[in-house]
Amino acid sequence: MLKRLLGTLLSVVIITSFMSGCRQETSKDQIVLTLWSIATESDAFSNAYSKAIKDFEDANPGVKIVHETFENEAYKTKIKTAVTGNKLPDLFFTWGGGFSKPFVESGKVLAIDKYYTDEYKEQLSEAALTYTTYNGKIYGSTYTTPISALFYNKKIFDENGLKAPTTFDELVQVCDKLIQKGITPIGISAKDTWVLAMTHDAMTLKSAGSEKVKAALTKAGQSYDDPDFLESAKKFRQLVEMGAFYKGATGLSNDEASALFYSGKVAMYTTGSWMAGSIQTDAENPSDFDVVPFPLLGSNAKATDFMGGAVDSIMVSASTKDPDLAGKAAFELTRSISKYAYLDGAGLAVWKKDYDDSGVNPMTKKLADFAANATSFTLWFDTTMEAEDAGEYLTLLQELYVGEITPEEFVSSMKKNLE
User: Which residues are listed as membrane-spanning (predicted)?
Assistant: First the structure.
């Protein structure tokens, strides 16, 4: 009996070892690349990423891309920690410009110039790679040209005899009338501070102008302690104090705040052009919505000056075991994401459009026209600034929103932050 039991156990061990060996052999035959992004299931780019990954795997038999997604705000911390701990995945989403500059300078990101082939150059201009180029070398590929704009519920506006505002004074008048009607004018998330920044950045651009904003944020001789920056902070507080924003915004995530807008519980929302795609999938009646450039706060900017630019990128870790495959994947994936995101209405394609786009929703096409006719693009504050400065900015902005600091204190603290 004991011999029979031992024999059975030995057989199980042999079979298990054999099966394990087969699995190991299979995994050895398959190349796995890990990709990190913020394209969660609720994100407008989720479908585009999924389709792009499938296309790449189909075109490269034996290659598997493991896609891990993270919420926007948490991801910013995760990616910085991964760089410091040398634990970056093969491929990772990031924002170009100042945000990724420390990553590149640390030597943790692979230069991918040699993978930028003539084929890709015909479809993606070098100018589009401006924010992923550092010291003359390309460190990432991009897929969209997002811009900030003011989305609004056209149905609510029509029912209340309102027109989309083109100036700040008009915006205040619209908010006043909506408040009198018992309608919350503007949706916002103060929990996800980047959403606060979407509104504040747009206001500051339309107050100070593109050149002054860029010079201040890049420490190029422009002090933040300036009347135009102060004016933006004051008017931001004016909107808070008049009750223009959703009252529970401090406890809302972006997804929750956006849902209120899609359901018609708030009338306006300032965010990136990707919202046009989300409206198509998340709003009951997408035709109720429209979009306009953010209102002007003075004469230093034009309606055609936009926050945004080709900054959303995929980069390659310098420690990847398959640099040639990962370098190729960075361009192949971004080309496909550019296509699918535009067709979904989630993004404004930065790669050449060589496909039928007749089915793209009118709002996305309108935003594409905004981008095509823009007189300037200014990257969002937390992307233009280096990581530490950006973190301090978002903290100060949250304090300004809840009234812990005054506009004057905000501007003064920003000046110190950028010295």
Answer: none
